[in-house]
Amino acid sequence: MVARTIPVDAFDLVIFGGTGDLARRKILPSLFRRMRAGQMPATARVIACARGKMTRKAFQQMIREALLEFIPRPEDRPDDLLAQFLEVLDFVALDATGEAGWAELGEKLRPDTVRAFYLSVGPALFGPIAHRLHETGLATADSRIVVEKPLGHDLPSARELNRQLSESFSEHQIYRIDHYLGKETVQNLMALRFANALFEPLWNAQHIDHVQITVSEKIGVEGRGGYYDKSGAMRDMVQNHIMQLLCLTAMEPPARFEPDAVRDEKLKVIRALDPVPIGDTVRGQYRANGTTGSYLDHVENPDSRTESYVALKVQISNWRWAGTPFYLRTGKKLRARLSEIAVMFKEVPHSIFPEVSQRRGNALIIRLQPDEGITLRMTIKDPGPGGMRLREVPLDMTFADALGDMAEEVPDAYERLVMDVIRGNQTLFMRGDEVEAAWAWTDAIIASWEDDRARPEPYDTGGSGPEEALALMHRDGRRWREIEG
Ligand SMILES: NC(=O)C1=CN([C@@H]2O[C@H](COP(=O)(O)OP(=O)(O)OC[C@H]3O[C@@H](n4cnc5c(N)ncnc54)[C@H](OP(=O)(O)O)[C@@H]3O)[C@@H](O)[C@H]2O)C=CC1
Ligand SMILES: O=C1O[C@H](COP(=O)(O)O)[C@@H](O)[C@H](O)[C@H]1O
């Protein structure tokens, strides 16, 4: 990847839970890549905290192994750079809820240096750590605190978390990560909409028949059954990631590309979402087939009714979108890993080619992963002298092809997000009121299921989800796009 990045000044990044999975798999490899891109200075310091006692050297060795595992190609991690990166790492044995380690951490932090505290620990520790950072004076007025999902389990718990954080930090210091906002193509959605004059005049209910947002996963819940069974697809994916995709697709153009301008517009979308009637929701749970186990094999409760798939028909009550439904779906153990936003345009108002009965309108497909790119489905004349026959063709642009060398490696979402924390740019982070509004809408849907006590519909692993989800579209005379790998 050609580095077109602005280096940041020295900073102290403290990672509470710095020996955990998130830190080893995502945060630290992302920092390494930023150093490789010339963005992270060798004067930066990363201090990991966890209860388990280890020396700085042992921690450096742990992260060395993590980098070898998660950045597998040796050419991507030259030895000299690896050594330089390990030098910025430090470790403090600290108990977030006890006394051990806090004084030592304080001694390691430098005055007049940007401080960021990344809470890569369970959510029960968010409030206590924030309080402690404030009480000990380790958090200065321009320090940042970073938290990540789960940001509550429902509206009351999200409110309580916001209350706890706001006791010790101002909103401008709180960085709530939704890693989907750090994905290149998700940011590209804003570029596509707001840097091209082409789409905006058509981006409304007058021209758009409906929008499909799909986040399909091939993996199941596997080792995460304990967490996932209390969550389900609605809390795990829809309340946060899919909500963000919906907001970026549906929001009004913000006046500026600035944190509150963007977040105000996203919030307006969430507040304009209609409650979803239970008949416009579908829940599914994957079942075993010959070779793979079922959802129930991975969770404790043999009678679990938690959904591993959800599909919704969503209406947005505002001038732009009234009458244009957004169909959302996400699920595990489906045919392929595919995330995309499909904007399906209406057909031409009058066809001068009446012999063609199966014509569909144009479609703009924004592929988020894999093979990031954009496709515009157009109708053209079939080549040759055989008369005026029409066919659909894709105007296809994968970013890898269009950008050549610059797209060699799509940066991981955490690379962008961690650096934005250091830069103090909150545009790609969720504001507290946004999270609460998303929970308020999600809670009502979950409550309607709980009243109904319906079992999720079983679906086959490796397929495209439950039959009922197909029916959700069919009854409106529409159909889902194929989930293709
Ligand atoms: N893993 C992932 O991909 C993702 C994780 N998350 C969230 O990030 C958070 C961390 O997840 P993950 O890394 O997977 O969890 P892990 O269980 O792998 O790691 C937890 C870390 O927290 C430390 N820790 C636990 N209790 C304390 C304490 N009292 N004081 C100081 N350190 C403590 C642990 O070390 P020790 O036991 O030695 O103290 C360990 O370093 C969770 O909230 C999770 O939901 C969010 C998105 C993705
Ligand atoms: O937050 C989560 O996201 C992942 C999917 O993320 P992606 O970047 O691989 O698309 C999902 O598997 C997980 O259940 C969820 O907690």
Automatic annotation (TrEMBL):
NADP(+) binds at G17, G18, T19, G20, D21, L22, A23, R24, R51, K149. One of its GO terms (cellular component) is cytosol. Keywords: Carbohydrate metabolism, Glucose metabolism, NADP, Oxidoreductase. Residues 14-188 form the Glucose-6-phosphate dehydrogenase NAD-binding domain. Pathway: Carbohydrate degradation; pentose phosphate pathway; D-ribulose 5-phosphate from D-glucose 6-phosphate (oxidative stage): step 1/3. Substrate binds at H179, K183, E217, D236, K332. Its EC number is 1.1.1.49. It catalyses: D-glucose 6-phosphate + NADP(+) = 6-phospho-D-glucono-1,5-lactone + NADPH + H(+). It is an enzyme of class 1 (oxidoreductase). Transmembrane segments: none annotated. GO terms for molecular function: glucose-6-phosphate dehydrogenase activity; NADP binding. The active site is at H241 (proton acceptor). Residues 190-481 form the Glucose-6-phosphate dehydrogenase C-terminal domain. One of its GO terms (biological process) is glucose metabolic process. InterPro entries: G6P_DH, G6P_DH_AS, G6P_DH_C, G6P_DH_NAD-bd, NAD(P)-bd_dom_sf. Belongs to the glucose-6-phosphate dehydrogenase family. HAMAP family: G6PD. Catalyzes the oxidation of glucose 6-phosphate to 6-phosphogluconolactone. This is Glucose-6-phosphate 1-dehydrogenase. It comes from Halovulum dunhuangense. The lineage of its organism: Bacteria, Pseudomonadati, Pseudomonadota, Alphaproteobacteria, Rhodobacterales. The gene is zwf.
